Amino acid sequence: TENGLQGVQSCVNYRSDRVDKMLTEIEEESRVNQSEVTTAIGSLRQLIDERERVLLESVRNTEKDEKKKVEDYKRKLQGEQQNLIEQILKFVVVCHDKNPKKLLDAKKPFEDYIKATDTKLLELKPLTRAKKGLPGLKALKDMETQIRNITLEALKHDNEKLRQLIVNNTDKSMLNLSSSEWTDLDMEIVAEELEINKSLTKLRLFTNQISDIGAQHLADALRTNTTLTDLELHGNLIGTGGLEHLADALRTNKTLNILTMYGNKVKDQEAGFIADKLKTNEKMEPQIRKINEIPYTNPQLTQLISNNINSAYVDFRSKNLNDQDMKIVADELLQVNKVVTQLLLQGNQIGDVGAQFLADALKVNTTLKELYLNSNKIGDVGAEYLATALKTNQTLTRLDLYTNQIGDSGAQYLGEALKTNKSVTLLQLQTNQIGDSGAQYLADALKVNK
Question: Which PANTHER family match (predicted)?
């Protein structure tokens, strides 16, 4: 009850803080946007004034150059007109004089004038002029249209490449979007997929450009998602704020089993404070607390699992597998392989913790019929985990636990499970540490188990 009340209080505080931050962000964003608009328009006015002066000066210079050319032509033409008038007057005077000799003498100068003038007129060709428009005037008008059409409405982000990857993904239970530089805005699209896809159990988003905003989009989707069990976000840019978003979603989301976030921007102390508020999710609270721990890996085992991902018979005998390896087996084999019926794990180094990982997988696995765990290091605690799983698992028919370290308490847990389990027909416990009382617990269970 205390943890529940603390959880409610944390949820309320988180939402209250988030609202206050959003109001502050809205006001600050508006202030910055107003300032940027004023600065941009002011700069634009200044630029327009400067360009107006330059362009008008260019127009006036063009006018001056063209007028000078025409006026120079006009002056030359006026000179020829004046010469023509003088020649005409001379011609009139000569014509009025009836002296034939004077007429004959005047003929050659007139012919020379006409010939020379014709030559000049050939050089002084008639002026032509096409109406000249300003090449940049259309650009100015286009710019005016662009300015009139500017709006400050937020555009909805889209990423066709990301959408196609999601659509073309054939395995609807797993979506790998790792190492692709996806951003916070892209996480809106991924969040949509989390809300739509009811088969998705594993989402790989590691090594991208996701920060707090992207984590918030994912967290919002997790609040209603009931299928995702594995979310890999390591190697991104998520800080304390993003982890708080995810932790708040995990107060109500009890489906997610694995969250990897090492290699982000969350400090251990901050992760501890956030984990303290997550008492309502016992499965995820320790993971949040150790968010920066790099998880155990076993490439050889992963490759073995990959080779057997569609096999009904899986043999991992005597591979020196340990407890942490069982987490890999549980997550990558038992929760992914939908056809495995026999799993051989005898002769390894599996203890109580490894048994817990396997037990958790057995609670949801519906195909495995035979599990061989003999010749390991499982004790009473491990037997308890397996017994708890048998109370819900109704598929397993054979469980080999001989040559382990199970004592009377472990036998008691297994006996209690057998009272309700109706599927197990063979349970091997020889060569353990079970005494008379343990045997009695099992015998009592068999009286009920029919």
Answer: LEUCINE-RICH REPEAT-CONTAINING PROTEIN, LEUCINE-RICH REPEAT-CONTAINING PROTEIN 34
